[in-house]
Write the structure tokens for this entry.
Amino acid sequence: MTVDVELTRPCDTDEVLAALAAQGLEGEVGDDCHVTVRAEDLAQVEHALDAWSWEKGLPFVPHQVDDHSIVLAPAAG
């Protein structure tokens, strides 16, 4: 399946792609702040994004939009 990931900051694109690759996921840069990821399921992508955000100390969490989309955005507080 393909998963569309919307990032909060365009400067994170390369690091996110590297983090996805470290988890065995293949992604490519899309338009604006989007990354398209090929994965077995959405949970794999969510886990990789959450781990990257935590490792970097960023206040972002993955929010599932629908069956094929995730937004990496600040946690609701």
Notes: Strands lie at 2-6, 26-29, 34-38, 60-66, 69-74.
